[in-house]
Inverse folding.
């Protein structure tokens, strides 16, 4: 479950949401707190709910005992045993700040004291990297074999862009959302992703 917390749905955010859907499977991903004007777009990648997870818990739609919030500020690290009781793992739909501004705690955790929170280590992950971590832990019943790299540098025509976050390693390479390096270099989405997201023949919005 990804709680959308940015004001807009930026191209960068689209890339991370799209990748998170590919990692978890569209049928396993729910986007919450989504403004109505983004419902149709995000429904390509998961179930879309306009209400926030805070409201869903407070109104009883979701049981607090079945919700775990992924929050870097949480005192306990997530373990495989958490999957035996929880049904929903909430990831903050936030593009990272460096240093972090603890927005997951401010917008979600602090408002849901009845829900438990877990962290995935001391470093900040991307949204899709967090989803990969969770799915890896679930599918492998542990983290054996999972490696990480802290910080990734992307070369552009105007210099280098450094991403100061922790990324899982897959086949020895940092796990970046498909199309992200292209977006960083050219400040636009790859044409094939524009077509997928907005429809054939459309231009990036």
């Amino acid at each position: 479950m990804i709680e959308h917390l940015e004001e807009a749905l930026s191209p960068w955010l689209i890339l991370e949401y799209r990748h998170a859907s590919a990692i978890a499977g569209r049928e396993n991903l729910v986007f919450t707190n989504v403004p109505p004007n983004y419902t149709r777009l995000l429904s390509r990648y998961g179930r879309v709910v306009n209400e926030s997870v805070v409201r869903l818990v407070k109104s009883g739609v979701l049981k607090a005992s079945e919700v775990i919030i992924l929050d870097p500020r949480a005192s306990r690290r997530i373990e495989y045993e958490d999957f035996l009781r929880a049904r929903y793992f909430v990831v903050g739909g936030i593009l990272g700040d460096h240093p972090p501004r603890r927005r997951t705690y401010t917008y979600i955790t602090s408002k849901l004291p009845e829900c438990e929170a877990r962290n995935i280590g001391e470093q900040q992950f991307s949204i899709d990297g967090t989803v990969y971590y969770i799915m890896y832990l679930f599918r492998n019943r542990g983290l054996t074999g999972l490696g990480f790299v802290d910080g990734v540098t992307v070369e552009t025509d105007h210099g280098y862009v450094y991403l100061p976050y922790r990324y899982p390693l897959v086949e020895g390479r940092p796990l970046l959302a498909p199309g992200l390096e292209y977006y960083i270099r050219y400040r636009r989405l790859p044409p094939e992703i524009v077509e997928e997201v907005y429809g054939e023949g459309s231009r990036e919005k």
